Amino acid sequence: MPDPLPPGSTTYFAPAKVNLGLSVRAPRADGYHDLHTLMVPLATGDDLSVAPASTLTLEVRGADLPTDSRNLVYRAARAYLDAAGTDQGARLILHKRLPVASGLGGGSSDAATTLMALARMYPAGLDLHALARPLGADVPFFLLGRAAVAEGTGEILTPLPVPRTPLVLVNPGVEVSARDAYHWLDAEETFTVPLDIDTVLATLADGRPVPYLNALQGPVAARHAAIQEALGALADAGLRSPLMSGSGSTCFALAGSEDHAHDCAQAIAARFPQWWVQATSTL
């Protein structure tokens, strides 16, 4: 039996995301990169339980993660409570279901969910996007709660409709830091032109290969053979347009239907029982 939740707890879903293409330009004068990416939330993710309390505490279930200011959920909660000027706290329980450092945006989604949960519990009329930006480039996207094109360093978001698309996620068990991925890209200077978003959207639902790319995939896969193996396993299972998400190491590919996604996920999991494999869909 799972440990009980505190009285008065409310549990929120924190969705994962994939990048349906990620273009990265050469570094700017400030050292950051201009991005062009189509980000979509998924029907799989973490859960966050929140209860009112006199102090701020965080418990993590399902992963060995810090529970203090080294954790983005704790930092998000502290930022909200301080900005709200409240002397109240919260008891947070993060139910971690996504792999860590996997390119699925789990930590950013957890942080955004924390901000939204505390805004409901302790309304203060705060600008959550202003609190989100210092926490991480992807946190504002998860506040938006829908598919969007992200530009700049990820802070310029343009929502757009994306057809519900079944897919399979595969994580081969290696962690990749975004800092390393961009460092490797800079060393190889394999920067890319902006995505053709219209063509990506047109081909998502019609069975053709999707002309997206991930500028980070080559440099990361060259240093982690398991990622190339994961991409190959997705293709071998009969899925469409395998791609690494974000800075990795999770890879995904598109399915023709939800049943197709589940069948392919089962086949990959049987072939690679040590991998994290999930059938899901875009939201």
> Can you tell me the CATH class of the largest domain?
Alpha Beta
* Number of helical regions: 9
Here the CATH topology of the largest domain equals Ribosomal Protein S5, domain 2
Return residue spans where pLDDT drops below 50 for at least 5 consecutive residues: none
Judging from the principal axes of the Cα atoms, what is the shape?
A: globular
Please state the average pLDDT score: 95
The main pleated sheet reads as: 6 strands, mixed
Distance between the termini: 30 Å
How many structural domains in the coordinates? 2
Radius of gyration: 19 Å
Give a count of the beta strands, DSSP E runs of length 2 or more: 10
Strand content: 25-35%
Q: Name the structural class.
A: alpha+beta
List SSEs in N-to-C order. EEEHEHHHEEEHHHHEEHE
Helical coverage, percent range? 25-40%
If classified by CATH, what would the architecture of the largest domain be?
A: 2-Layer Sandwich
What report would you give on this structure?
This protein has nine helices and ten strands. It has helices spanning 72-84, 106-121, 128-132, 139-144, 178-188, 197-204, 217-223, 225-236, 258-271; strands at 10-27, 33-53, 56-61, 89-95, 148-152, 156-159, 166-171, 240-244, 251-254, 276-281. It has two domains: 10-159, Ribosomal Protein S5, domain 2, CATH 3.30.230.10; 166-281, GHMP kinase, C-terminal domain (Alpha-Beta Plaits). It has 283 residues and is of the alpha+beta class. Strands 1, 2, 3, 4, 5 and 6 form a six-stranded mixed beta sheet that branches.
